[in-house]
Amino acid sequence: MSTLIAIGAGIAVLGALGAGIGIGIATGKAAEAIARQPEAEGKINKTLILGCALAEATAIYGFVIALMIIVMLK
Amino acid sequence: MKDLAKDLMEELNCETVFTIPIFGGIDVSESVVVTWIIMAVLVLVAIILTRNMRIDHISKRQAFAEMIVTKLTGMVEGMIGPNGRAYVPYLTTVLLYIGVSNIIGLFGFKSPTKDLNVTIALAVMSIVLVEAAGIYHLGVKKWLHKFTEPIAIVTPINILEVFTRPLSLCMRLFGNVLGAFVIMELIKMIVPVILPAVFSLYFDIFDGLLQAYVFVFLTSLYISEEIEE
Asked: How confident is the model at residue B12 (pLDDT cuts 50, 70, 90)?
């Protein structure tokens, strides 16, 4: 049973995949934008950090669900 | 590893500190007490900073207080736009409360935002404010009509959004605070010296303040979306 719980929690954390891809794309685009317009760096950085915090949410949901699987089913 | 699991369970459960002996006993949990401490600190700081305010020849303390208020309200106003100026004080208060409660873990208290009930309450307050702002600014008829925009077929999704928005708000805040806590515990278990201090800068201070900002940003985004004609 505990093996199955561990596998389930591991699958739930797969949600982090989306966050990784999303933040990667966002950072790449931000680097491009700064290269094009270095004077707008402050604004771009602010938007990037905000976007990363929002994109991170999917990974966090995965983490919360994994934790809940472990805690509730144990 | 067994210790960690036990610690985690302990942190997830919010224990009752004491019970108020009226109406058959009201349980007061730890997060409520820490919230009172935060309230006391914030109110005390506000009273100290705003004593003896003058129009000319201002003191350094008053200049500091004015700077904080101008910066914070300016930031929130930049997010919500000029139409939602009435909601700026509430949002700034929530920003201060979440920000302080996220970093109060550094001082040995248990963060109130690590209790799911607190984040649920904050999210429900947000969504009630959003919908009330919509009704207040547009009137009931227009507010109801807004559910059928842009086309009638998306109405179920728009109604669903009323429930998913607070859910995502509260889960984001709770998950981030809890996640930061778990990772910090793991780091402390592996390397107990120096390294936790470095990571604590990111996970406790930066991430905590960022999540407070994100919470207020999303709430103000929803409000400004709701009150536009």
From this structure: low
- Residue A56, chain B, CB below 8 Å: the answer is yes
Question: Residue A16: which CATH number?
Answer: 1.20.20.10
| pLDDT bracket for residue B1 (50, 70, 90) | low
Chain B contacts of A70, Cβ < 8 Å? 5
Residue A56 confidence class, pLDDT cut points 50, 70, 90:
confident
B165 CB near a chain A CB, below 8 Å? no
d(CA B78, CA B84): 10
The interface predicted TM-score of the complex, written ipTM, equals 0.78
Nearest by CB to B171, from A49, A56, A61: name it. Answer: A61
Q: Do B217 and A50 touch (CB under 8 A)?
A: yes
Whether the CA torsion B96, B99, B104, B109 is positive or negative: it is positive
Encode pLDDT of B166-216 as tens digits.
998 998 898 888 888 888 888 888 888 888 888 888 888 888 898 999 999
- Asked if B226 and B184 touch (Cβ cutoff 8 Å), the reply is no
Please give the interface size between A and B, counted as residue pairs whose CB atoms are below 8 Å apart: 37
3-state secondary structure at position A11: helix
CB A23 within 8 A of CB A56: yes
Instruction: Tell me how many domains chain A contains.
Output: 1
Domain that holds residue A57: 2-73
